[in-house]
Amino acid sequence: MNYRRVVPCLDVKHGRLVKGVNFVNLQDVGDPAENAAAYSAAGADELVFLDITATLENRKTLLDAVRRTVARITVPLTVGGGISSCQGIEELLALGVSKVSMNTAAVRNPDLVREAAAQFGRDKITVAIDTAQNAKMPSGFEVMIRGGTTGAGIDAVQWARQVEQLGAGAILPTSMDTDGKQTGYDIPMTRAIAEAVSLPVIASGGAGTLEHLYEAIADAHADAVLVASIAHFGTFSIRQMKEYLAGRGVPVRL
Predict the structure, then answer these.
(1) What count of other Cβ atoms lies within 10 Å of the Cβ of residue 149?
(2) Among this protein's residues, is 111 annotated catalytic?
């Protein structure tokens, strides 16, 4: 059975869990390890931990916060933010992290994706693609780097195809246009990427209702849905999300 996964996302800044809108106006919502423990116990399939300012601040991921988070959970954890070398990946995997996610480093040095996949296995390597609408791009979506602050001048769908060829095991596309707004995922962008690759695609950015989760899977062909605001602020429990999807005929682990 190819289960669809519900994946809470922990955006972490200086060791604290935060949530913003369109990548800015961040507000503190607690301790990442405590929140991760609660989501793990509540039935989350996986968790994603993103050190969102590591690249901008030219530093590696905060290993202590990752270490504390891994210790509190029983589900796979993907960690991203500030990963720029195979040594950095090795350090995270040694802590018990299941997968790593890279974005800016992959754009700047695509060979890093190939090297990491060869060294650690493609199932360990997720490439995150932050996107923004740009009519000048063939697909209408541009790759954004450095925490969403810089346009890379690369078409998002073409980049997704390239990272699949480089050896990525999954793709995590986040729409800057919908992030944190709770108005729904960017379905056209997510669908375009999902249809361009054969890798698992994790929809991210904009979930506000249970219907949005279903749309990402049914309409955009996502294999998993990343949730943040609706989980952090208690709008819906993980159980409610999964029961809703199951009720709509989506295979989930209850």
Answers:
(1) 14
(2) no
Residue 220 carries which DSSP code?
Answer: T
Tell me the C-alpha distance between 157 and 139, whole Å: 6
Q: Look at residues 171, 230, 222 and name the one whose alpha carbon lies nearest to residue 206.
A: 230
pLDDT at 23: 65
Task: Give me 2's structure tokens.
Answer: 């190819």
Catalytically annotated residue among 51, 130, 155, 179: 130
Catalytic residue among 11, 45, 155, 223: 11
**How buried is residue 236: exposed, middle or buried, by Cβ count under 10 Å (0-12/13-18/19+)?**
buried
Six token digits for residue 145: 């780097």
Contact 169/123 with Cβ under 8 angstroms?
yes
**Pair of tokens at residue 80:** 């991203």
pLDDT digits (tens, 9 = 90+) for 115-153: 999 999 999 999 999 999 999 999 999 999 988 889 999
List domains and CATH numbers for the chain: 5-247 (3.20.20.70)
Q: Is the pTM of this model over 0.85?
A: yes
Q: Measure the CA angle with vertex 218, ends 217 and 222; round to 5°.
A: 30
Listed in order, strand segments (DSSP E) in the chain are 5-13, 16-21, 24-30, 47-51, 77-80, 99-102, 125-133, 141-145, 150-155, 170-175, 202-203, 224-227
